[in-house]
Design goal:
The complex is a heterodimer of chains A (795) and B (469).
Chain A (H helix, E strand, L loop, with lengths): L1 H8 L11 H29 L4 H16 L5 H16 L9 H4 L3 H6 L3 H14 L3 E5 L5 E5 L33 E4 L5 E3 L6 H9 L5 E5 L6 E3 L2 H11 L43 H16 L10 H14 L41 H9 L26 H14 L12 H4 L27 E6 L5 E6 L3 E6 L5 E6 L6 E6 L8 E5 L2 E5 L8 H20 L15 E3 L3 H6 L1 E6 L6 E4 L5 E5 L10 E5 L4 E3 L9 E6 L5 E6 L3 E5 L4 E6 L6 E6 L5 E6 L4 E5 L8 E3 L6 E6 L5 E6 L4 E7 L9 E8 L10 E6 L6 E5 L2
Antiparallel strand pairs in A: 1-2, 3-4, 5-6, 7-8, 8-9, 9-10, 11-12, 12-13, 13-15, 14-15, 16-17, 17-18, 18-19, 20-21, 21-22, 22-23, 24-25, 25-26, 26-27, 28-29, 29-30, 30-31, 32-33
Chain B lengths: L1 H6 L6 E7 L13 E4 L4 H12 L7 E5 L2 E2 L4 H8 L6 E8 L4 E8 L4 E7 L4 H4 L12 E6 L4 E4 L5 E5 L6 E8 L2 E6 L4 E7 L9 E8 L6 E7 L4 E6 L3 E6 L18 H6 L6 E2 L3 E4 L5 E6 L6 E6 L3 E6 L4 E7 L4 E7 L4 E6 L3 E5 L9 E6 L5 E6 L6 E6 L3 E12 L5 E10 L18 E7 L3 E6 L3 E7 L2
Parallel strand pairs in B: 1-5, 14-18, 27-31
Antiparallel strand pairs in B: 1-2, 3-4, 3-5, 6-34, 7-8, 8-9, 9-10, 11-12, 12-13, 13-14, 15-16, 16-17, 17-19, 20-21, 21-22, 22-23, 24-25, 25-26, 26-27, 28-29, 29-30, 30-31, 32-33, 33-34
The chains are: A alpha+beta (795), B mainly beta (469).
Amino acid sequence: MAQRAGQKRKVVEVPRPQPDPQEEDELDAVALNGALEDNDSEEESEGSEEAGLDEDEDEDELEDDEIESDEIPSSEDEEDVRAQVDKLRTNDRPNTPPAKLMGSDTAKDVSSLSPETPMKQLGQEGRKRKQLLRTEVDANGEPRYIYNEIEPNYDSDDSDFLVPTNTIGNIPLSYYDEYPHIGYDINGRRIARPAKGEALDSLLDSIDIPEGWTGLTDPNTGKPMQLSGDDLEVLKKLTRNEAPGEGYDPYPDMVEYFTGKGMEMTMPLSAAPEPKRRFVPSMHEHKRVMKMVKAIKEGRIRPYRAPTEEDKEQDDAEQDFASYDIWSNEIPRPDHPMNVPAPKLPPPGYEESYHPPPEYLPDKQEKETWETQDEEDRERDFLPQDHSALRRVPGYAKFVKDKFERCLDLYLAPRVRRSKLNIDPESLLPKLPDPNELRPFPSICTAMFKGHDGRIRSLNIDPQGRYLATGGDDGTVRVWELQTGKQLRRLRLSSSEAVNQVSWQPSRETCIIAACCGENVQFIIPQGDICNPQQDRRSREVLDSGFGYATSNPSKTAAGVDKPSSANWLRPSTTLQDKGVLLTLTLRSTPKTLAWHRRGDYFSTVSPSTAATSTAVAIHTLSKHQTQHPFRRLKGLAQTVCFHPSKPLFFVATRQRVRVYDLQQQRLEKELQPGAQWISDISLHPLGSNLLVSSYDKRLLWHDLDLAATPYKTLRYHSKAIRSVKFHPSLPLFVDGSDDGTLQVFHGNVMGDSLENATVVPLKVLRGHKVVKNLGVLDVEWHPREAWCALSGYM
Amino acid sequence: MAATTDARPERTAQVRIHLTTRSDDIQLPETGPILVPTELRRYQLSTLVNRLLETTQPVPLEFLINGQFLRTSLDEFLTQNGISAETTVNVEYVRALIPPLHVASYEHDDWVSSVDVLSNTAKAIRMQESKRKALYAPRILSGSYDGMLRIWNESSEVVATGTAHTSAVKAAKFLTPTVVVSAGIDRTVRIWKHDYAETGYEKGSLAPTLELYGHKSSIENLAVHTRTSRILSASSDHTIGLWSNRKNDLPAAAESLLPIANKRRKLSNAQQCPQRGPLSLLQGHQSQVSDVCFDEKDDTVAYSSSWDHTVKTWDLTTSACVDTRTTSQSLFSICHLSDAGLLATGTSARHISLIDPRASATTISAMTLRGHTNAVVSLAEDPRSPHQLVSSSHDGTCRVWDLRSVKQGSGTERTGESVYVIERNSAKGRTKRPEAGDGVKVFGVCWDSTVGIVSGGEDKMVQINKGGE
């Protein structure tokens, strides 16, 4: 025993080489692990072996608990106790001075004690301990006891070997964070920091948490604290509330109540045949019955007792109670507001009779169909049945079910009365006038103008509304009688280039057709009695007036140098002059569209294919033979232009935008964003406040110029690109022509006072134009007064 | 009578009919209602009436009940229209109109814009003042888009041609058997002298005698009045010209309207006709005037139709517009029906509207004749019956209408349907009528009792249709 206690304190001083820290860590960890285990086993063995040292044991255990619970090791106290225990174990003498000092090597203890004292004590025990410890002189010249190292082999009975105890005192372990060790053991040797493992190891540990992992660190050893399997089991039971109370014996002795010796059961059934007496009437009973019969006959037994007065009263009272009408005095109350009356059933018919006429009875097939039908699909929920008499009618089989369903209905009926809005869906639609009230509008094809070869790119009706001018791929300009479709004139302008645009000058006094053919704009006075001599003379004057102006006022730049003109106004060849072409304007690029100002003096051409955007749009003055390019630089590719009917405004449509310029102020007035990818045509309402934009992406956009820059209405009815759109000059109509070969006629009424919105009503889809090579209607045009429109396409 | 029918139940049902007519020559003596079996058809009824009339030559008759022609048996008609057989049915009988059959077609070089007929029964002869009424072989005058006037005889030979017009002729009429009036896109009204051989089928001649200038734009139509030698021209310069065929009556033509003197042309036209101006120009229309006609009874009244949707009544003595009736469509043709006192107008809305020109009339349109599928551009009255007319349309058909065949349409509108449809002979083989009358448009029609219905059109043909007599 004493030896063992001595061993406890022993620290073997091994001259330790300083290995590289990692190796040291590993080694230490192994050693400490083993030490912990040893500690446990030691405690156990102590408990079982030494019953007499109960107190100390308890204390010891307490200490252990403390250590476990507290992070800061109180090594001093522990050492104290340990020393006492050692003393008890090693020393017989009860009055020995406290052994506190013996094992303590804290600085305080050491300093407070004289160096002799331990020596003296040692002297008393010296002989015994001689082989256990040796004395050395430390750095201060004081003696130092070095205990022998205990070999933890099997021979050793040092079961209560303690781990090298940390002696740093009551300071947090974190003070040692920057050192490789965590404290000092009793021999002043460094206790190496247990292996923490590399970051990867800790990560791995965190990934697969080993069983019993607590995440806590043993404050004594710095090692992670693990729970053993038994501990886990206990914890598990605690969490499940399976922990039994005190005095519960989990393994009681078995008491054999039903089995075991002397408890065997005998079989209750027997194979013996039934005795005869079971089948034979009992003579004894017969006798007794006969006795009673005799007694009744003789009047000794009366079958009923005569009712007494009391009985009668009681009967009456019962009767009264049973027939008491508890509702007799009820005051009728109004129905609950949420009252759900039972559905009113129609009066029963013949087929519901118990004995219906034979024609109401279902035949076999009807019966079958009724039976095979789903319950919800049945026309009636019963089959008429014939009963010869009322008394043969069975009870109503579905009574319970019906009542249950009624209860279910009441139970499930909504308790809140929802007010249902009675809105006629028709009333939500915007009110559109009937197309029949919006007559006249074009509805039928009345004439076809046949003669052109290839595409007819442009057409125009003269201001009087009698003639139609067309121009097409065959390089000819033709004039037709509008009503009959008779070709009156044909004029070949070019054999190779198409006529892109024909347009009558908007004046009643003259009769001039402007035709864009190639890079030229030709001015034609149609011959052949289409215009009268007055008109002819006036037209010639208009066309010739510019020649004098151009020569007398040559356009000059500020420097006085002749401006290089971008356009040439020339007289055509005499052959053309004979045909009626009296003026040729040659531009540098191919003009695709031509728009006249309402007075007929100005017109604008657009050449989308030109290289320089500045020359794409040109405004020409017919009376001065002048050509101006109003835009120094134009954003986007110009598509088409138009003049405002009353104000000096000029509309330029590029591929995606429509810009409105004030020609007098020379500034941008407005920019419209139709949102179309590629604008094909624009048309301005005769009042000038609404603009229609058609686009190649199948949309027709209505812009109200007084409103936002975005469209007021988008009409998307065509299945293919829209080529052209036109407002009627006088009637509230507009029409668009598309590549799908249809024209769509709309009623578009614009109010004069800008208070009311414009109404747009689709009126008619005019079909019948053939689609050739994916080209349908190329151009549309209105008659100036009538609701007639002309369209052109591929012939 | 009812008792007798009851007594003989095996007899078929009978109905009481009341026969009436509006034609005086076939008026029945007042008989009261007669009882006829309901299985009777048109033919049986016709023989019955003929027997009652005691005519030597049976007159084919048609029967109208409630404005509908009887085409089935009486019984079927009554059941179809829900008329009780116990009431007295008013049956109007009219001279049967024989379906006009194609007689001949005269081929031209270009579209035929107008036709006129000269025969013994033609208006130009009937209205002549002179007592000397020679018998004429029928002549047909046609104006064409190639600027030529042609006079044909009945054996489809060109008797005479006139080539003074510089562009398409749009209207041509016989003023008298020897005077022809024509007008066209070249803004002139030309008077021609037609020398015809008395014997008939010889070559005649057609020589211009007068050029009338006054219009600023093409002339669409002409109207002539034989007795007063007045000519009316409807022009697309919104005016109507009033002219005479007598050179001395007319003022000189305005210089500005004369064609620009071209040296070459002057040389070719060595001998030139006298040029004259109008007696007066009737101004008032807002758009081009499409057609003009004289009142059949009063030669000082004329009616004109215009693209500005109006019909105007003109007093020719004062050259003033008396009355204006506005319709809802452009009007392309006009014809005065003297007996009914109505103006038939062909519209761009594909129907014929009968307009009451009297100032007291409450409704503008007395009746609408529906059936055409394109603009109605020419109208002519039946010379024999005041109740019938023929119309020609751009849809390629001529239609014959009977004003007595009336249905009460929706509201107060009364509509009529055509009795016969005359298709173009050139389009005979086709199963379907061409869309918009393409290629077969009919531009002019004329109805003469001797020759029949003459019409000319886009198929470059003058077509003659006649009902068998």
